Amino acid sequence: MLIELFHIPTLMLCFFTGSAIVATFVTAMWVKERHRLDLLSWSAAFWIGSIGIFFLAFRNVAPAWFSIGLGNLFAVASPGLFLVGLRAFDGRRPHAWLALPAPMIWGVLYFGVPAFTNDINARIVLVSVMVSVLSVVIAHTGWKGRLAEASMARHAVIWFFASHALVYLSRIPLAYYRPLKETDSFSPAGWFGYYTFELYVHALFAGMAIFVLVRERVERAYRAASESDPLTGILNRRAFLARSQVSMAAGGGALVLVDLDHFKRINDSYGHPAGDAALSTFCRWVELELSPQMIFGRIGGEEFALWLPRHSEEQVAGWCEKLRSKISMGRVETDRGSFGFTVSMGACADLLAEGSMELAMGVADHALYMSKRSGRDRVTVIRAADGVDRAAEALGALTATPPQSALSGVAAVRLV
Predict the structure, then answer these.
(1) Could you tell me which residue, 405 or 150, shows the higher pLDDT?
(2) Which residue of 93, 94, 111, 287 is surrounded by the most CB atoms within 10 Å?
(3) Would you say residue 115 has pLDDT above 50?
């Protein structure tokens, strides 16, 4: 019969072995990063859970208070510790006390209430309720953290713990309609073996989920480090161009280059730390104006780039002028005094989805140069269709005509 495949003592010994192996690897991970409370909690969860299962495997061999009493006490403490670890993993307060209610309730009832101690069905109902509640809380905690860090492993944890809660809740009606009896054979009824097997699978899955969650976070951290500028925290040149290319292919837009005016003077007058502060402050100001779809990156020393998806020429000019005006009114506070600065901006607008990022960079660079030749602290926008030739013509006109000091805001030479 199928039930013969689910010999409970054998399953529990296999369960203990698998959990102990997982606990060993998680502990090894924690030893390398001892500041990680999540790994410490998960390590404790698997060690305590494996010890509890080991005790339970010796039912009818060891005294009942040792096997059933302490075994279940350790076993129900394990999911609480897993919850504490998940909260720490998500950057929330771990609240170690969350691991205490389940084993305390079990200990009080088993060691203090004889009627409960001698009723296997009451014990099954209590354990089922506690494990189901903790599994639901774990699934909910994982669900809350998905917005900040979505991953396939996280979604798998959510659905597996939610389904585990449903499975354990289904034990309650069985305990009433097909009640078990205390026996010496440790094979009380066919359905109990199936649930023991499910618990074994769940424990192994939880261990694998931990490894995948940690690995995915490490991969994201390395990816973020490789794509970000170390000083400002925004995208570096390579990452900006890659993401902008994808966004352009999805529907076109506009490329904007921004350069801090007279940046060398800031370094010379206030020192290089002040220059770094100016760059970082500038990035924070720009980030306040970004919509979720916009892309912002640093492509040179004091040169930055913005990608504005699906923006027309007029929209680009208005948005850039608003940003330029706000930056010109800002102040940077340093140990050597406060100062302000301005920016010059050049944009290549109306880029089509099939456009070239190299052409866009060339046109935007011409537009930026025109803003600087026109007196700085201004915006120049050139349509992509006009291309480099029109930009060169406009630049020649600027060279022949001295810049007008009255010009401000959007540059007078705005090719359309």
Answers:
(1) 150
(2) 94
(3) yes
Residue type, position 162, single letter: A
For 287, the enclosing helix (H) or strand (E) is helix 272-289
pLDDT at 7 over 80: no
pLDDT above 70: residue 290: yes
Quote the pLDDT of residue 413. 39
Count of C-beta atoms within a 10 Å radius of residue 222? 10
Three-state SS at 109: helix
pTM: 0.69
275 touches 332 (CB < 8 A): no
Distance CA 353, CA 247 (A): 8
Q: What is the pLDDT of residue 43?
A: 94
Q: Measure Cα distances from 223 to 89, 226, 228, 241, 293 in Å.
A: 19, 5, 9, 15, 20
Q: What is the pLDDT of residue 405?
A: 32
What is the helix (H) or strand (E) element at residue 112, kind and residue range? helix 101-112
Q: How many residues in the chain?
A: 416
Q: What are phi and psi of 336, to 5 degrees?
A: -100, 20
CB atoms within 10 A of CB 178: 12
Domains and CATH numbers, the chain: 2-227 (1.20.1070), 237-410 (3.30.70.270)
Q: Which residues contact 35 (CB under 8 A, 6 or more apart)?
A: none
Q: Are strands 378-383 and 409-410 parallel, antiparallel or unpaired?
A: parallel
391, amino acid identity: A
- Gap between the Cα atoms of 211 and 228, Å rounded: 26
pLDDT at 2: 52
Mean pLDDT of 34-52: 94
| Token output for 325 | 């005006």
Give CA–CA dist 180/199, Å, rounded.
19
Give the pLDDT score at 192: 72
